[in-house]
Amino acid sequence: MSGKFFNELSWRLRKVADFLGVRKYFNTKLYNLILIRAEKTNFDLGFWKFMNYGYEPTDPTTRPQLLPEDKEDRVCIQLYQHLVETVAMAGKSVLEVSCGRGGGASYAVRYLKPKHYVGLDLSPTNIAFCRRQYDHEGLEFVEGDADDLPFDDEEFDIVVNIEASNGYDSIPIFFEQVHRVLKPGGHLFFADLRHNEKQLNELREHLDATAFEQISCDDITGNVLAALTLDSDRKVGLVKDKVPPFFLGSFYNFAAIKGTHMYKGFENGDNTYLSCRLTKAGKSS
Length: 285
Prior knowledge:
Blueprint: H1 3-20, H2 23-40, H3 74-84, E1 93-97, H4 103-112, E2 116-121, H5 124-133, E3 139-143, E4 156-162, H6 171-181, E5 182-194, H7 197-209, E6 213-219, H8 221-242, H9 248-254, H10 261-267, E7 272-279
Parallel strand pairs: 1-2, 1-4, 2-3, 4-5
Antiparallel strand pairs: 5-7, 6-7
Helix pairs in contact: 1-2, 1-9
């Protein structure tokens, strides 16, 4: 089975999963299958710490100052900076739902200084990687479901959710769970894309129907496309060097490298990327 065939097959199977209402289950199983298969071929995927498409600010002077070891992941880090910069994270309790490979959690703990940061992900492969990779004080990783968060009511000051909700079975249930675990006055920082106008309208309706107060919800598609364009050549080099040939097509499209179906979606306007800041009513403690 060629990489191109696998990529086309997985794309079609995702459509079937969406139709059957089992998108989350399918995405998680496929994702873990790819990672486990890659690990068995002895390819080092330690380079893969961020899973978001990135953000390039309109004003380059607002780019964050980064340590040398973080500069390669600049555009991905800039998406975190853009999303959370309006609220100080220092001394706060933070939950990142669907933390992926943990790069954003590591950045936030080292630069933004929260008191406690929990990265939650449904993928056991991701959680195992994060626990091996990061050893920062105040940072922990937990396996769990965005639809059933394993935390107490009003436990967190801030919840972060980046580029993950498009894989959830129920956005309303996710928002209800986040609202439950946030303290009064707490913030949800939410960023994600949708692939057509129907999906975008549904997301906006879900956002409007939540119990949260919406502070802002901006279309940052242009900033994300600029980041993808800037970072495309670096990603090609990494993927060619680190990823088994069988999976190249899937990784190229997953990373939205120039010329892929995903990249063209941003280029032609099919994909729209929203960045939203919401708050739970009440006074923070």
